[in-house]
Each structure stands twice: as structure tokens, then as C-alpha cells.
Design goal:
246 residues, alpha+beta, Deoxyribonuclease I, Chain A, six-stranded mixed β-sheet, 12 strands, globular
């Protein structure tokens, strides 16, 4: 069994940036005992916060969260500014064969990317492709980014290989998600089990179905939205988890 989780951590801050909660996020993530973590809006560096927030970790946020639970990680730097950068990360209990970050944005400060990591669970299975994604808020930009994703998968990933695509799709209308399912033969975990996408935003009163876990060439075993305390007081998004068998 392989268990994964996707989470937009809001750069380690609670909703409305009221408090820095990265240490609490770390504790809760460790309690989930998942094999793979897909993270969006995670800081690689922020020089101002590092000097102004006493509990800011010395290492990057993805290194701080990975710690001893997920010894392997990949980070895609997307939004770059004078005092730092943030983007997407994948934390894994399994070693990466290869990883790459593909920019999906037309704008330097926008945190939109496709982070592609490849792992091999054991010698009996083909490689597993992990794609962590954060799409644009505007519909026409999401459509353009989806076309890049489709072309990338068609050219880079054999149809027989297993794929998990997880992240923040900013897709309140569900149009992007259904195109992804129909045009790339993908399935979404919550739509497969519950016939609808999970509501994940805002975390204190989730109304919008923003976050997803898509898969191909895997068997879905279960999926869960992590809600209630303490999740609804951490990031502005709720995390989703899913478990699969080959």
C-alpha cells in the first residue's frame, strides 16, 4: 500500500497570516504516517521572516518538515522575490530516481509550477511518477497551464507507468479537473469514491473544491479529507490523503 497526502501550507502561516504555525503543521503531518507528501506554497527561503520570527527554522521549510520521516525531497522554486522564494515540494520515504521543475507561469512572482519526481517502490514495479502542481486562479490561465501539463505527460511519461498528480488546482468550477480526467485518462480520488471533489477551502468553513489527488495505473483503496481541529486552524486549506495499491 502507498499512502499520499497533498497540502497547501500557506507558507507556514494560519489563515489571514495571524500566526506562524509551521511547527504545528510538522507535528500533524508526522502523525499521518504517509509515504509521500505533496506541498504547495512552501518557502525555500525568506530572509525577513528568518530575522523577525523567533521560531522560523534555520533550514528551508521543506527540509524542516521532511526531517527524519521523509529523508528524500524535491523542491521547485517558483515565486522569486528580493528576500526569498517559495514554490512546491514533494517529501518521500522513497529515493528519487529523477526530478525536475517546469514553470507554468508567465509572471516571475507567480507561484505556479509542475514539480515532477520519479521514485521506484521496489524492483517488482515500474517507476511511479509524482507531480505536485499549483495552478493559476484565472480560468484562461489554468486552461493554458493544463495544456502544458497534458503535453508534458504525453511526451515524458509512458502510458503504462503509474502517475499521481496532487496539489492546489484553484478549480472552483471543476472544469479543469474534468478535462484532466477525460483527456489524460486520470481518476480523482474523492470523485471516484464520493462522486464529487472534496471541499478544502477555506479551512474553517470549506466551501470550494480546490485541492485534488488524481491517479492513473493504480487502485484506489481509500481517501480522506483531514478536517476539524487542529487542521482548521492551521493553513487556509485542508489537506487530503489517499491510499493506493498497485
Amino acid at each position: 500500500m502507498l499512502k499520499v497526502l497533498t497540502y497547501n501550507i500557506h507558507k507556514g502561516f494560519s489563515q489571514y497570516n495571524r500566526s506562524f504555525v509551521l511547527h504545528e503543521i510538522k507535528q500533524q503531518l508526522e502523525n499521518t504516517d504517509v509515504d509521500i507528501v505533496f506541498l504547495q506554497e512552501i518557502h525555500g527561503q525568506h530572509q525577513k521572516h528568518q530575522t523577525q520570527i523567533d521560531s522560523w527554522p534555520q533550514a528551508s521549510q521543506f527540509e524542516f518538515l521532511s526531517d527524519q520521516i521523509w529523508p528524500h525531497y524535491a523542491y521547485g522554486k517558483n515565486a522569486i522575490y528580493d528576500h526569498g522564494h517559495h514554490g512546491n515540494a514533494i517529501l518521500s520515504k522513497h529515493k528519487f530516481i529523477h526530478w525536475d521543475n517546469i514553470n507554468l507561469s508567465r509572471f516571475r512572482r507567480a507561484s505556479r509550477s509542475l514539480l515532477h519526481g520519479i521514485i521506484r517502490i521496489d524492483d517488482n514495479h515500474s517507476p511511479l511518477h509524482l507531480i505536485c502542481i499549483h495552478l493559476e486562479l484565472l480560468g484562461f490561465e489554468r486552461s493554458r497551464q493544463l495544456n502544458i501539463l497534458k503535453e508534458y505527460i504525453s511526451k515524458s511519461i509512458p502510458e503504462s507507468d503509474a502517475i499521481i498528480i496532487a496539489g492546489d488546482f484553484n478549480d472552483a468550477t471543476s472544469r479543469t479537473g474534468r478535462r484532466l480526467e477525460s483527456q489524460l485518462d486520470m481518476h480523482e480520488a474523492f470523485r471516484t469514491k464520493f462522486h464529487q471533489y472534496a471541499k478544502t477551502f477555506p479551512s474553517h468553513l470549506p466551501l470550494l473544491r480546490m485541492d485534488r489527488i488524481y491517479f492513473r495505473q493504480l487502485q484506489l483503496l481509500d481517501c480522506e479529507r483531514l478536517s476539524g481541529k487542529p487542521w482548521n486552524s492551521l493553513s487556509d486549506h485542508l489537506p487530503l490523503s489517499a491510499s493506493f495499491s498497485w
